[in-house]
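Ticket opened by: R.M.
Priority: normal
Category: complex prediction / small molecule

The reporter submitted a protein together with adenosine-5'-diphosphate and asked that the result be attached to this ticket for the collaborator who will pick it up next week. Submitted input follows.
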Amino acid sequence: MSLVVQKFGGTSVADADRIRAVADHVARTRRSGHEVVVVVSAMGKTTDQLIRLAADVSTVQPTREVDMLLSAGERITMSLLCMALADLGVEATSYTGSQAGIITDAVHTKAKIVEIRADRLRATLGGGGVPVVAGFQGMSVERDITTLGRGGSDTTAVALAAVLAAEVCEIYTDVTGVFSADPRIVPEARRLARISYEEMLEIAASGGRVLSLRSVEFARNHHVPLHVRSAFTWEPGTWVDEEDATMEQAVVTAVTHDASEAKVTVIGVPDRPGLAARLFRSLAERNVNVDMIVQNTSVHGTTDISFTVPGYDLAVSTEVCEGLVTELGAAGVTSDADVARVSLVGAGMKTHPGVTALTFETLAALGINIEMISTSSIRISCMVRAAAAEDAVRALHAAFELA
Ligand code: ADP
Ligand code: ASP
Ligand code: MG
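Result attached by the on-call engineer:
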């Protein structure tokens, strides 16, 4: 009997009707002869509401308490889904992340899974039952409740699929698969039938939030095939797996954008070895994930260092930089949250010159200024004003004929 992990996102379990529809699908999968492990997200916008509630209660939010609070969202869904399954005669047992044996490091609000002790899940499966696991959470090595970062239920699902050697990890969501751009912004975007882990990694890393980045890393490292599909139409969606000869190597596969990052600039840093190392070591020690970095060559012996960080790390990043101004001999620090990154991803880019030129020409035609640029072998990213990002995505999608 093959094992399937099925993960249901927030919109897919947003109300009682949705939870019953999901239960129905799980029951059907079970009756068709598969073992099923279910992973659920918090209902609808619950996580956002809890974050707002915390902000209304206090300006001080110890991250341990934030995790305790947010983990409650997924617990509501898991128990309701088990009740709906019981109604259909399917034996199901809910597990918090901690009960499911998901052990993480102790970095609250963005913990990493270090180990999974899945014996309780195996026991439930062995008894013919369906384990329903609360996504997005675990227990730290110090035995505190942790969460895995926004979108973390995807990571829970893939990690469980890896450790239980599932045949596939199905990610059910509110779109019918992975598209050539966010279908909410580019209605003519095309659904991709198959895509490699490498391309999906770049899409996830550059703002295509349909899968969390960590979940794709996990899937690639542990060879877990992913099937991203709709919890509304239930039609086949997009397969994410190993690149092979049958996969089409489009020059550009998708255009993404991400408005959740912010830019920090340290002005007038003396041009000496060791200063950038000092700066980025200090940021790493505070668990800040730095993304794009730009350093201008100096004319007068000083340089400006600009870099981007996730928006939620902006406060700590500016604090770190301001604390280093004197030691570095810099002139000051500025920050800017009003930016967005627009990216093109495609495995065929490696072998096709001209992608960068057409990207820049397309943005120039719209009068959009490029503030920072970064590339990988299969991605080009441009930082632009946040207000221009969606127009840029639509224009690039058209320019590269992705519809
Ligand atoms: P869930 O709650 O199911 O995890 P998310 O909101 O995290 O759902 O992810 C699904 C959303 O991702 C879609 O509603 C869509 O707007 C967005 N999205 C962004 N880029 C893409 C893309 N390239 N393909 C599909 N969906 C995308
Ligand atoms: N509920 C969490 C979030 O909204 C985790 C998830 O849905 O994947 O980020
Ligand atoms: Mg998600």
